[in-house]
Amino acid sequence: MRLKRLRVLLFSLLAVSISSAILGCGKSNVAGVSGTVLRKDGTPVAGARVIARSGDTGKSANGQTDSNGHFELGTERVGDGIPPGDYYVIVVEDLGDERSRRPPTIAMKYAKPSTSGLKLSVRAGEKTVFDISLDPK
Q1: Are residues 42 and 95 in the same domain?
Q2: Which residue from 79, 20, 13, 86 is spatially nearest to 56, judged by alpha carbons?
Q3: Residue 11 sits in which domain range?
Q4: Which residues, 6 or more positions from 41, have their beta carbon under 8 angstroms from its beta carbon?
Q5: Containing H/E element for 52?
Q6: pTM of the shown model
Q7: Do 53 and 92 have their domain in common?
Q8: I need a surface site. Which of 87, 92, 106, 110 has the fewest CB within 10 A?
Q9: Is the dihedral of CA 35, 81, 29, 83 positive or negative?
Q10: pLDDT tens readout for residues 37-96
Q11: Residue 103 maps to which CATH number?
């Protein structure tokens, strides 16, 4: 009985190791990017879209801030990472729908790549923390 349990345990460990190796291989060609978007006064920007776009490839990744201003970038789903390279970053604040627009709380310059001033460089396999502090409107 003890030998049977040992075999099951060893087989399970082998299966987990192989699965981790196979599934983990895809992550080595991307970079993990997360961070926090805050106003200059330290308050979080909740519900904002953070978009990183490569000037070289035109590919982009995005994420959305939570109530604490935290975000993770992904190309297909949140947190799946982005390809290595240089990116310009924009932040688009959620101002509500057309009928009930809220006034902006961050400068509109952050919504345009040519004026945001936010840049990000990442390498494959690295985890990058990209914290952003934004000027008021």
Answers
A1: yes
A2: 86
A3: 1-29
A4: 136
A5: strand 49-54
A6: 0.77
A7: yes
A8: 92
A9: negative
A10: 999 999 999 999 999 999 898 999 999 999 999 999 999 888 898 999 999 999 999 998
A11: 2.60.40.1120
Cβ atoms of 92 and 111 within 8 Å: the answer is yes
pLDDT value at residue 1? 56
Following DSSP, what letter does each residue of 58-106 receive, concatenated? --EEEEE--TTSEEE-BSSSTTSBB-SEEEEEEEE-----GGGPPPPSS
Together in a domain, 6 and 64: no
- Residue (of 62, 48, 51) closest to 102 by Cα position: 48
CA separation, residue 110 to residues 5, 19, 51, 70, 81 (Å): 59, 41, 10, 17, 22
Q: What is the pLDDT of residue 17?
A: 43
Q: Do 66 and 87 share a domain, yes or no?
A: yes
pLDDT of residue 9: 43
